[in-house]
Amino acid sequence: MHKRHEDRYYVLAGEMEAVLYDERPGSPTLGLVAKIVLSEYRPRLMNIPAGVWHADRNLGSKGSGGH
To answer: Rounded to an integer, what distance in angstroms lies between the CA atom of residue 28 and that of residue 13?
Structure first.
């Protein structure tokens, strides 16, 4: 979680899962958990606002040193 800056994720190869938790006071999504899969097969840019907790993990072997 970053207090002052946003993160942006875009996957060029493979797939990753991002898990988000919003603890921003007054946010319409306060207290919600979201799981989002980003993939080379469905390209999109994800913006994570300041104050939102987030973690990510690789799905599969691309980008993790696998072959």
So the answer is: 32
Question: Is residue 35 helix, strand or coil?
Answer: strand
For residue range 8-65, list pLDDT tens digits in order. 999 999 999 999 999 999 999 999 999 999 999 999 999 999 999 999 999 977 765 5
Q: Which residues contact 23 (CB under 8 A, 6 or more apart)?
A: 1, 30, 31, 51, 52, 53
Q: How far apart are CA 23 and CA 33, in angstroms?
A: 10
Among all chains, which residue has been given the structure tokens 């097969």?
41
H-run or E-run covering 9: strand 7-9
